[in-house]
Specification:
39% helix; 625 residues; seven-stranded antiparallel sheet
């Protein structure tokens, strides 16, 4: 810079000094000594002004400004001094400054309110500041417009307050409308679809979906429900980190995820960035929902274009996610209560029906038929595991034409992942093709059987000992409710208990039949008494030969039997019964008077206690010769 030819401006301050020292001869304004009085007067006025002000002089609109304007110039200071405004403010000139200067040339004094300017400080940090500005024409000695005076008033705080108010009103309006829509709906999928459509339209994005995380915490489901405008809705099951490890890290820690431009973001790997490009996902934001410290759901929003996510938008995504969760859980709770009542009603009828069946096969057939009808299945079957032989035998099945009958047996090794699951929990598949937790072998072989969805509760005889399984299958993808899963598990337990019961009853009947055949063929008399009352409960047909009476004549009251014993032997005989009732086995002899022919006969009786499961004498048995 060169020293001015005379000491003007004469006032103090940084800009007065810079103006004095500036080499004006190198600018369109020429040496300072040749400036017109009108310009010099306005410079004195501007320098003395307490607020930000600048002069734009001449056809090139060369800029001269005061000390207060330095805070606006920021990192452009002092380079703005003496430069045409087109060079100093190239970002604002075409759309903002140029139209204002056109008005000035026509003699108008234009105003601009709430103009936001992106400024960079001396440290390089950017900030958005807002100004009201007014321009007035400056006339030269001939009365012609020679330049413009621009004054500025910063209104950043005011604008921010108005913006906060606007955002608050916008948020409340959005949430009230969202609540109103959701309150009218009673279906979980309808709630999700309506809420996501409203959110997606409001944000102007390409896709919005609500994903629920499975119980393992490793996968989230994409059910094809949501808002789509350019990007297809997802309808598969994915690992949490499948679309970016950095995304998973945020979600698992409960932090919101946001990226304004995934292709410019430094966090994705090259492979992940290629995947985003392939799927046309340019920007993304997501809110994780944690309950009890566990990730349960994610609301993800994607855009095909770069999208600068605002704090308000992130808040609306979070609020929508929370409200979907509450509404969906309420619907599910209501449905669960209703399903519980229906389930209990069904299980009562189920148990009654099984009790009426005569054998294990009939019980199994009746059970799977009732289950098939109740859940509106395409096929239901009962299979017995033979792990050592690598197979499961299909014992009973029922179905319709949508699913072909199951083969007599299947190889367990054809379903490695599914079989691993049934070792310790119920297998639930809603869509074989979308379930990423299954091995490819599982998917191929399940599909070959015609199934797309299934529930398989397994009865286990201790850890890692699967015995048999009930499979409820559908030919199309199906969302299984918690009530349906619970019903299958209850049915499996009750069916097993019913089968054990009829098998035990059959074994008892067979045992009793063998005893009756033995007793009928025996020449000796077999009898059983109640230990408490000594009432006769059973006598074999030999009673007719030995005592000379019909069996029914001696059953019941012990007096019927005692009356046949000679009076002098009766007391000793009753004492021997008391001994047996106390737990002793005794043999004694007494005389009777046969009722059939009046003949006397010696009887040799062996009495012994019959114990219950607690070791107490419940009955007394006897053999009479």
């Amino acid at each position: 810079m060169k020293q001015a030819e005379f000491d003007w401006p004469s006032t103090g301050g940084e800009m007065a000094g810079r103006i004095r020292q500036y080499d004006w001869a190198a600018t369109p304004l020429g040496p300072i000594a040749g400036w017109p009085q009108s310009l010099r007067t306005m410079v004195d006025v501007v320098i003395a002004m307490p607020g930000p002000a600048t002069i734009l002089w001449g056809t090139d609109h060369v800029q001269i400004y005061n000390d207060a304007y330095i805070a606006i110039a920021q990192d452009r200071h002092p380079g703005l001094l003496g430069r045409p405004v087109t060079e100093g403010w190239p970002d604002a000139y075409p759309d903002v400054i140029a139209p204002l200067l056109t008005d000035i040339q026509e003699g108008h004094a234009p105003h601009l309110r709430g103009y936001a300017v992106r400024l960079r400080g001396q440290t390089g940090e950017e900030e958005i500041r807002t100004f009201d500005t007014a321009l007035s024409p400056i006339r030269d000695e001939r009365g012609a417009v020679a330049g413009a005076l621009q004054t500025l008033v910063e209104v950043t705080a005011k604008e921010q307050a108005q913006q906060l108010l606007h955002e608050s009103e916008e948020r409340q309006s959005f949430l009230l409308k969202l609540s109103d829509i959701m309150q009218r709906l009673a279906d979980a999928n309808a709630i999700k679809a309506a809420a996501l459509h409203m959110l997606g339209e409001h944000l102007g994005v390409s896709r919005a979906q609500y994903h629920e995380v499975d119980t393992s915490g490793e996968y989230y489901g994409a059910d094809g429900i949501g808002y789509a405008n350019g990007l297809p809705l997802l309808d598969l099951k994915y690992r949490i980190g499948q679309f970016g490890s950095f995304v998973a890290a945020d979600f698992e820690a409960g932090r919101p995820f946001r990226s304004d431009d995934l292709l410019a973001d430094t966090r994705p790997s090259d492979e992940e960035r290629e995947a985003y490009s392939f799927y046309q996902i340019r920007a993304g934001a997501g809110i994780p929902l944690l309950r009890g410290g566990k990730l349960v759901a994610i609301l993800a929003v994607h855009d095909m274009r770069p999208h600068a996510w605002t704090a308000l938008e992130m808040e609306l995504i979070r609020e929508t996610a929370e409200r979907i969760w509450v509404a969906v859980e309420k619907v599910r709770t209501d449905n669960a209560v209703r399903e519980s009542v229906e389930r209990q009603t069904f299980l009562l009828a189920f148990s009654d029906a099984l009790r009426a069946e005569p054998d294990a096969d009939a019980v199994a057939d009746r059970a799977i038929r009732m289950l098939f009808d109740q859940l509106r299945l395409d096929r239901c079957y009962l299979s017995h595991y033979r792990v050592a032989d690598d197979r499961a035998d299909i014992m009973h099945q029922v179905g319709n034409d949508r699913l072909a009958p199951m083969p007599e047996s299947i190889r367990l090794s054809h379903f490695p992942e599914a079989f691993r699951v049934v070792f310790d929990r119920t297998l639930v598949i809603e869509d074989v093709l979308a379930d990423q937790s299954l091995a490819q072998t599982d998917r191929e072989n399940i599909i070959s059987l015609g199934m797309r969805a299934l529930i398989a509760p397994t009865l286990r005889m201790g850890p890692h000992r699967p015995l048999w399984v009930i499979v409820a299958a559908a030919a199309e993808p199906r969302h299984w409710t918690s009530g349906e899963i619970a019903l299958l598990e209850d049915v499996a337990e009750r069916l097993w208990a019913a089968i054990e019961r009829v098998q035990s009853e059959a074994a008892l009947r067979e045992s009793e039949e063998r005893f009756r055949q033995f007793a009928a063929s025996s020449a000796g008399l077999l009898w059983i008494r109640d230990a408490r009352s000594l009432a006769m409960e059973y006598v074999s047909p030999a009673i007719q030969t030995i005592y000379g009476v019909q069996p029914e004549a001696i059953l019941g009251d012990p007096k019927h039997w005692a009356a046949l014993i000679l009076p002098e032997d009766r007391g000793a005989a009753l004492e021997q019964l008391e001994a047996a009732r106390s737990g002793k086995a005794v043999t004694h002899e007494f005389r009777i008077l046969r009722a059939s022919d009046g003949a006397f006969r010696w009887i040799r009786d062996t009495n012994f206690p019959l114990l219950d499961e607690h070791g107490r004498v419940q009955r007394i048995g006897g053999i009479t010769d």
